[in-house]
Amino acid sequence: MGRLAWIRLGVIAGFIGLLEILCRGGAIGRLTMIPPSEMAAALVELIASGAVDDDIGRTLGSVAAAFTLAVVFGFVGGVALHAIPRLRRAADPLLATYYAVPFFVMIIATLNGLDRIPRVLDKVARTHRMRPLETALRLKLPAAAPYLFTGVKLAIAYSFIGVIASEFILAASGLGYQIAYAYNNFDNRTMYALMLFVLTLVTTINMALYVWERRLQRRRLGR
Amino acid sequence: MTVFHAELAGVARTYPGVAGHPAVHALGPVDLGLVRGEFFSVVGPSGCGKSTLLEVLAGLSPASTGTIVFEGAPVAGAVPDGIGVVFQEDASFPWLSVWDNVAFGLRRAGIEPGETERRVREAIAFMGLKDFAHAYPAQLSGGMRQRVCIARTLVLRPRLILLDEPFGALDAQTRLLMGDELLRLWRETGATVLLITHALDEAAMLSDRVGAMSARPGRFIDIVETGWPRERDSRIVAQSGFGKITGRLWTSLREESLKALGHAHGAAAG
Amino acid sequence: MTAIRRAFDVALLLAVLAAIWQGLYMFAGDVAIASPAETVRHVFVLLERPRFWGHIEETLSAFAYALVISWAGGVGIGVWLGAHRLSGEVAEPILVALYSLPKVTLYPLILLVFGLGMPAKVAFGAIHGIIPVTIFTMNAVRNIRPVYVKAARVLRLSPQQTVTGVLLPATLPEVVSGLRVGFSLTLLGVLIGEMFASKRGLGFLIINAIGLNDVETMMAVTLLLFVFAAAANAFLLALDRRLHKRV
Predict the structure, then answer these.
(1) Which of B157, B172, B207 is the last residue of a domain?
(2) Within this chain, do residues B145 and B132 fall inside the same structural domain, yes or no?
(3) Nearest residue on chain A to C105, judged by CA atoms?
(4) Residues with Cβ within 8 Å of residue C103, at least 6 apart in sequence
(5) What residue numbers bound the domain in which B152 lies?
(6) Radius of gyration of chain C from Cα atoms?
(7) Cα pseudo-dihedral C158, C164, C168, C170, rounded to 10
(8) How many CB pairs under 8 A join A and B?
């Protein structure tokens, strides 16, 4: 681990430590927040009890469904918009406004990737007498891949946001619903345990993707 | 009458006007016959249509008028088998290793794996990439990446190799050394080579013949026979005949280059 | 010519979207959604009600406060992280992780700290908007080409002239891109905040209408927000494009 990573770890640990001290010292009241160590303990208990297994499954299932739809339709939409520049120019303000929607995120990433395919690849394809489909699969897709990956990462993040927000409001199960339920019943222990669970889960997924992406990119960027 | 390996007759290229811009007459009319196995270079001021000439000959863009013939068959709409092109831009595939870049065309053509491996190994060794076979383009310098592109073309054994300012982005010394490699490649493959370049010294050193083009629309205003022996390398830049050739090229091109810079005819000549 | 054609294209796209909407309405019926015509009519009905203007004002002022915090805070922190290399490198992965966190999960915390009402909404908007503005600004400052700074020294510019004449214009296009992203996400944050943490404002009206099964009001308010956000974004996007074209 490099020096930067140690400093980063220190900053994060310092922040959590500060919260812990403030909570334990009473500067932050128990009704507002419980100490981070207690959140972790409560989370371990909650997971061990199996009480929220169904909700976890439901939320993850919804996220997976939303994510898959977003990536597939976003990619197709992006390719279509790229092929019709007039439609794209007309749709631009809409895309820019609603990119918190996972589907739009993927459209934008696809457009971005297709825009950055070097023009010389087209000429290379023609010197090899490649058909359009082969050019798309063998040259354009790998050339655009890093940008598509960015879209995939953001689509995961926004799928989580969308699913949890709608569970707060509309659902009768799922992690969002359970957090809202605990909040309404002043059950801070369960509430913070679940919040910690969601944030840790999303951060873990993001970090895993980040590491994977770095590994894929390393040779391509020559690092 | 000579039967040319590749021949352009009355070839011109006009880009149609779009959205209020007038049509641009980019090239020609140009007549040019390439003798089988010769090394021909084209020099000319920027924007004179050198690259257009190459793309038209390769079948990458259509000619507005005139005919292009390669090995007895007309070129139209597609790149004929037997022509290889190396571009000015870095066209190596960053997602493939050097080995896979070079093997790309052979694998597509369904060449048998043993044969593919043999030819890739040979091309990689020929271009001096042996130690980098498993590296990725991003780990290589610009010159090395251009070698990958040349190897990727070479491995398909083209009979006519077209190079569009392949060393344009490299420093002068590296360019001379790459020139040596190009000469070696040309001698050993027996291919016909057409090189587009903006460097007069490069053209004078490498070529059997050098064509000097006018400012846009580009036409040949002079064709210089260098008379170099087939066995030659970059050391000929030290010979007295070399200065005569570059001198003659510059005499032809100075006026045209001033035009391309936007100067009035002969205004800065005094 | 191109401007007219562009306007035509946009009109055509909106017409197609309205047609799809009408199609959905005919398919799903008025239990689930309202027709485009009804929705537009209902927008005008709402606009005639004085109380509705109170909600608009509430949302706009919460949005304005949140936007000021997002923009000013994001640019300030971004400049610091961009100029101070170590801080920037330490902070970047943390910022990226925070950016993709589902911050809506934090809503109970915001409520417990700020209570129901304006401060909670502003906080909700600001936590959504400030991070992208920070990331964009940091990258803009970090990527200033060193030759610009050298050129400023060769031209003997004073520090103040260097900032106003070189550094600010050099970073502006990227910063404006960040402000644009921040704008959208701040609005999103404020509306989500109103849905959970308020009894006033347009976000509350939507959630209340969902609760009462008042499809017309829900869709009318959504349409109004859509028009506002798209118009503001079209303006910021045009500005963004113009600035980027210069470079």
Answers:
(1) B157
(2) yes
(3) A195
(4) A161, C124, C127, C128, C189
(5) 92-157
(6) 22
(7) -70
(8) 59
| B269 in any annotated domain | no
- Chain B's closest residue to A218, CA to CA, is B138
Dist CA C26 CA C201 (whole Å): 31
- pLDDT in 10s for each residue of chain A, 223 residues: 678 888 989 999 999 999 899 988 888 888 888 888 989 999 999 989 888 888 899 999 999 999 999 999 988 888 888 888 888 888 877 776 666 677 788 888 888 888 888 888 888 998 888 888 888 888 888 888 888 888 888 888 888 888 988 888 777 888 888 988 888 888 888 899 999 999 999 889 888 888 888 877 776 765 4
> Side by side, which strands form the sheet with B73-74?
B24-34, B6-15, B65-70, B73-74
Which chain C residues are closer than 8 Å to B19 by Cβ?
1-2
Find, among C215, C211, C179, C208, the residue nearest to C194 by Cα: C208
CB contact under 8 A, B79 and A120: no
- Nearest-Cα residue of chain C relative to residue A183: C108
Q: Are residues B34 and B71 in the same domain?
A: yes
CA distance A217 to A214: 5
Q: Scanning the structure block, which residue is given the tokens 């610091």?
A: C80
Q: How many residues does chain C have?
A: 247
- Say whether both B103 and B236 belong to one domain: no
B/C interface, count of CB pairs below 8 Å: 3
Interface contact flag, B138 A222, Cβ < 8 Å? yes
Q: How far is CA A2 from CA A9, A217, B191, in A?
A: 11, 19, 53
Do C100 and A87 lie within an 8 Å CB cutoff? no
Q: Are residues B197 and B242 in the same domain?
A: yes
**What digits encode the pLDDT tens for the residues C94-135?**
888 888 888 888 888 888 888 888 888 999 999 999 999 999
Nearest neighbour of A165 by CB, restricted to C99, C180, C192: C192
- Are B228 and B193 within 8 A, CB to CB? no
* Three-state SS at B15: strand
Tell me the CA end-to-end span of chain C in Å, nearest whole number. Answer: 25
Answer whether A7 touches B (CB < 8 Å): no
- The correct CATH number of C50-246 out of 3.10.450.50, 1.10.3720.10, 3.30.450.40, 3.90.1200.10 is 1.10.3720.10
Domain final residue pick, B157, B178, B201:
B157
B105 shares a domain with B76:
no
Counted domains in chain B: 2
CA B12 from chain center: how many Å?
Answer: 19
Identify whether residues B164 and B250 lie together within a single domain: yes
Per domain, the residue ranges of chain C are: 50-246
| DSSP state, residue A140 | I
How far apart CA C206 and CA C228 sit, in angstroms, is 16
Indicate whether B52 and B69 sit together in one domain.
yes
CA distance B19 to chain A (A): 15
User: Which chain C positions have a beta carbon within 8 Å of B20's beta carbon?
Assistant: 1
Q: Which two tokens stand for residue A136?
A: 């798309």
Query: In this complex, which of B85, B95, B137 lies closest to A142 when CB atoms are compared?
Result: B95
Q: Judge contact between B183 and B206, C-beta under 8 A.
A: yes
B35 and B78 part of one domain: yes
Cross-chain residue pair C103–A161, CB shorter than 8 Å: yes
Residue type, C110: I
In angstroms, what separates the C-alpha of B142 from chain C's closest C-alpha? 22
Which residues in chain B are closer than 8 Å to A123, comparing Cβ atoms? 55, 60, 85, 87, 91
B270 in a domain, yes or no? no
* Residue of A127, A213, A220 to mutate for B, most B C-beta atoms under 10 A: A127
Strands laid side by side in the B160-164 sheet:
B83-86, B160-164, B192-196, B39-43, B209-213, B220-225
Query: Is B30 a member of any domain?
Result: yes
- With a threshold of 0.85, tell me whether the complex ipTM lies above it: no
Q: CATH number of the domain that B61 lies in?
A: 3.40.50.300
Inter-helix orientation angle A102-115/A53-83, to 10°: 40
